[in-house]
Amino acid sequence: MTLNAWIPVFALMTSLIASLVIFALPEKGYRLRTWVNLGAALVKLSLVVVMVWGVFQGVEYGLSFTMVPGVTFVLKADALSMMFAGLSAVLWLLTTIYAVGYLEDSPNRSRFFGFFSLCVASTMGIALAGNLFTFFLFYEMLTLSTYPLVVHRGTEKALRAGRTYVIYTLTGGAVLLLAIAWLHGVAGDLPFREGGHFMDADPDIHRSLILIFILLVAGLGVKAAIFPLHGWLPQAMVAPAPVSALLHAVAVVKAGAFGIVRVVYDIYGVEASSALGVLEPLAWLAAFTILYGSFRALSQTDLKRRLAFSTVSQVSYIILGISLFGPVAAAGGLVHLLHQGIMKITLFFCAGNYAETLGIHRIDEMDGAGRRMPGTSVAFTIGAFGMIGAPPLAGFITKWTMGSGALAANMDWVIVVLLSSSLLNAAYFLPVMHRLWFREPAGSWPEERHWGRLETSAWLFWPPLLTAVMTVMVGVLASLPFSPLSWAELIALREYSP
Amino acid sequence: MTLWLMAGLLFTPLAWAVLTLLTDFSRGRLVTWGGILVQVLVSLGLWLTVARDGGFHYGLGGWQAPLGIELRVDGLAVTFVLLTAVVASACGLHAGVYIDPDKPWHRYFWPLFWFLWSGLNVVWLGGDLFNLYVGLELISLSAVGLVALGGKANALRASLRYLLAALLGSLVYLLGVALMYGQFGTLSIAGVVSWLGVHPVPAGSGLALALMVTGLALKTALFPLHRWLPPAHGIARSPVSALLSALVVKASFYMAARLWLELGEPLGNLAAAQLVGLLGSAAVVWGSWLACRQPQLKQVVAYSSVAQIGYLFLLFPLTYSVSESVSLQAQQGITLQVISHALAKAAMFLAAGNLILSAGSNRVDALTGVSRFLPFSLFSFGLAGVSLMSLPPTGGFAAKWLLLQASLGSGQWWWILVMLIGGLLSAAYVFRIYRASFLESAGPDRFYHPARSLEVIPMILALLALGLGLASDQVLSVMALPFEEGGSP
């Protein structure tokens, strides 16, 4: 086998090995653990960069072997997987830096970072999986490796949230397994392929295909937090901030959304899905979730819970984008996979900074925090404006592309959804920003900590600023090659003209 | 070469049983280490021989059936021989450290251990119904003895109950054997099969098969005949529980499966096959449900065995009057389930033993804070749990996948529901343990930290269960090796 076959394996193994090393390190090995973490994150990032360049050039990366009789384990790098792998590699590095500062002096750090790396290894596996079976393997591994992170604090509340999380995700997993096994029985072992497999499917199996599609979306929809399967997400907010950041921006919700993209594009094929009549109901469901999440976000008083409902809403943009039949809308949905990740992680980093530095958890405690923590608040403001869709930030690119795609596909109602969702976004983010910048502080902060020369610990200070800068850059430079938008257009193009 | 391997395999355990009978616990441990080495090498050697040259029939001492002892050395049998070597040596090494050498009755541990091992090898390789019976009795009696080593009054009660169940099972089985002999005039399974090839099926031979399977099902603790298992497996010392759950119940199931696969098609019927599958499903649901409700850690694991054994009996409906490929899938799935459950359950019992040793209590809620101070054993327990939940990439998952495919392929979709519900219920009882151990308690480390060797052994077993999923194609390929058919009538 050539080196190219092994590069995806190496990318997967870096975090897996890092995880095992971290588990083996003693709890007190603080410095070494940090180096292992950061070293692995950097190695992985460079491997992903190599693969992105290779995939652009048309190089084939991948390996496969028979795992169980009749099914193969396939790792493969294609344009779509690079999108998710790139997101996870970049944000893993930043979140690791953030988590090192966040968890300073707290117990169980060895366990935390071990499972953290395992979680990223699963995300990488999800990105690189070359068929549904392999995808499912890592999808369930993700469930298991995030559980200890959700319950990390070990309080009754955290354990309750963990229980809800597990009930939702494992049930979703069981439904997904049923669907995958059934599909395997109907059509055999299907590799992910641009354009899908069911263009000229036998009409006899149409009914089974539709049922399987519903089961697949139901199984994946739990992690993607599609209404009414989103209940676990706001509860899981009790987890430490780096975990929420990663869960929301990269790992869990994106794994679900990414899976749905894979099913629609690379298993069914967008034309076949459209012909089966499953895309339009999916679009309606996504549109409803977008509005529902935003409405619920309005009434939340806890900052992280408001952000959680905002995630419910934002992830469905991706699903709406791919279920509108047309390459432009598709690019809009796909690019949101990255854009939402970058913006949401900024917001969660900031929420964590407020909580750790000033003890702020509720929105009504945020009055005047902009003066005490200007750096964090600038980052928060950029992230929030991005979510609302103010030009030229990342969210604007998404909404603009999707809107023009919807018009091109003659689905004008989508414009109404996009506009009302933006209004709602503004309605729940602008008051927060008003409190940050324009209100007087209430006197003393709930739990203030002084942490070196900056407004907060340097480990916590820089990651949100960096992601905020990225939020601006991906918007301003959207038309350059290798920007998220041009990469998404590349994928959409390959899907619509395979 | 083969002669030496076979002789080593069958006679060293007996020789070691006698040797260790003459010593006390500590010296017996030293002797046992040597025996474990021999057994592992011989089992591996035999497995490699069969993997290279294919399986064969072997007349012990040159005597062929019907007079001599006929052995059937095929890919499946040597795979189980090797599995036994792995699991039994892990349990033996663990027991050497875990069991307190000062209690005088513990010196009987090693002889019983070796008798058990020799019985297992006889069952995996046995070719005729009577030898299988002898092996099975050897297993049952030594297993009962091992349970009784728990020492306390309730251990004796549990072992007596176990003894009664085992004897009743044997009686029913023997009745079936007698009927069989009366009808076919042979005790060799291969002999019966070739007899049936020429003659029509005699009336009433279905009853013989039913009796044999019922007796074996009682020994395997199939629902509703499972009541003896949880007290016995729960009360025994942890390495003993591991041996019992991982290997002993598998021996009687293995015999039932062999009988069914050879004789089920001519002698069985559809209703009986479905009934056995239904009882297996009931075991899955009921066993998991009870496992969720046990206050004691080892009882949780023991009830989980009841549930996991239930899956094995899906073999009956999934191989009866279905296509060749579906039947193969089902057999492969069940084989993987046997292997992965053996590895995972042994790992889980050994890890549970460590946790109980550390926490000083068998209760689930005594685990508070374990995750912080004793992560290693908990991690082994957790990994084994992943295999029991049949989540990827473990052997349990590969098994479930094949069984799902077999159910789909034969249109028996109702087993799919059982498997999905069973998977979720097993997650419920495994996560219950995680939940208890992730709870943070105030205060310093109050746990006893067991020796590193005790902690490493379950981890190795759990990793093997995990790796089995990735390598299941290779493991199964040994079973598909050519087998030189030539069983004498």
Question: What does this protein look like?
Answer:
The complex is a heterodimer of chains A (about 500) and B (about 500). Chain A is mostly helical and about 500 residues long. The two termini of chain A are about 25 Å apart. The mean pLDDT of chain A is about 90. Chain A has 20 helices and two strands. The radius of gyration of chain A is 21 Å and the shape is globular. Helices cover about 75% and strands about 5% of the residues of chain A. In chain A, β1 (about 60-70) and β2 (about 70-75) form a beta hairpin. Chain A has a domain at about 280-498. By secondary structure, chain B is an all-alpha fold. Chain B has a domain at about 285-490. In chain B, about 75% of the residues lie in helices and about 0% in strands. Chain B is built from 20 helices and two strands. Chain B has helices at about 1-20, 25-55, 75-100, 110-125, 130-150, 155-185, 190-200, 205-220, 230-235, 240-265, 270-295, 295-310, 315-320, 325-360, 370-375, 375-390, 395-410, 415-440, 450-470, 470-480, and strands spanning about 55-60, 70-75. In chain B, α3 runs antiparallel to α10 (about 240-265), α12 packs antiparallel against α18 (about 415-440) and α16 (about 375-390) runs antiparallel to α18. Chain B is globular. Chain B starts with a helix and ends in a 10-residue tail after the last helix. In chain B, about 60% of the residues are buried. The chains are: A mainly alpha (about 500), B mainly alpha (about 500). Chains A and B meet through β1, α5 and α6 of A and α16, α17, α18 and α20 of B.
Write the layout of secondary structure elements.
The complex is a heterodimer of chains A (498) and B (489).
Chain A: H1 3-24, H2 30-57, E1 61-68, E2 71-77, H3 79-102, H4 109-128, H5 132-150, H6 156-187, H7 206-224, H8 232-235, H9 241-249, H10 252-268, H11 270-276, H12 279-298, H13 303-323, H14 327-358, H15 369-372, H16 374-388, H17 394-408, H18 413-438, H19 458-476, H20 484-496
Antiparallel strand pairs in A: 1-2
Helix pairs in contact in A: 1-2, 1-4, 2-3, 3-4, 3-9, 3-14, 3-19, 4-5, 5-6, 5-10, 6-7, 7-10, 9-14, 10-11, 10-13, 12-13, 12-18, 13-14, 14-16, 14-17, 14-19, 14-20, 16-18, 16-19, 17-18, 17-19
Chain B: H1 2-21, H2 25-53, E1 56-59, E2 70-73, H3 75-98, H4 109-125, H5 129-148, H6 153-184, H7 189-198, H8 205-220, H9 229-235, H10 238-267, H11 270-293, H12 297-312, H13 315-319, H14 324-359, H15 370-373, H16 375-388, H17 395-409, H18 414-438, H19 452-470, H20 472-479
Antiparallel strand pairs in B: 1-2
Helix pairs in contact in B: 1-2, 1-4, 2-3, 3-4, 3-10, 3-14, 3-19, 4-5, 4-10, 5-6, 5-10, 6-8, 6-9, 7-10, 8-10, 9-10, 9-12, 10-12, 10-14, 11-12, 11-18, 12-14, 12-18, 14-16, 14-17, 14-19, 16-18, 16-19, 17-18, 17-19
Subcellular location (chain A): Cell membrane; Membrane
InterPro entries (chain A): CPA3_Na-H_Antiporter_D, ND/Mrp_TM, Proton_antipo_N
Family (chain A): Belongs to the CPA3 antiporters (TC 2.A.63) subunit D family.
